[in-house]
Amino acid sequence: MNKVILMGRLTRDPEVRYTQTNNTLVASFSLAVNRRFVRQGEERQADFINVVAWSKLGEFCSKYFKKGQQVGIIGRIQTRTWDDDQGQKHYMTEVVAEEAYFADSKRDGEMGESSNFDATFGAMPNANANSDFEISSGDDLPF
User: Fold this and answer.
1) Which residues touch 87 (CB under 8 Å, ≥6 apart)?
2) Can you give the residue range of the structural domain that contains 68?
3) Quick one: pLDDT at residue 81?
């Protein structure tokens, strides 16, 4: 089973590209995820994890996620390799997002009263081209 659940802060705004073959949108960003334990006398450490989101989920992330915002990502780990122009092999490990959520509270995040977007969570349960994403307001949350 290949399942990853992350919660962290975006280190930059999502970057959007389109594939050359079929013009599919892909958003890429990096999450700073704090490590669980802190060694005595040291500052908290974080891991910087690359994330990619495809199609509608990528569009959602690029539209609503901003640098510094805390988000939750559910997805899978993917590794890939390629050779550059000089013939050197490169390796990349990243998380392919399948679901994306807001993790800031309304007070902590930049989703203040002046914002046009009034939601605590946003999700894409199925990240395929035929699905539509739904955004639920905080009113129907169980807490």
Assistant:
1) none
2) 4-37+45-140
3) 94
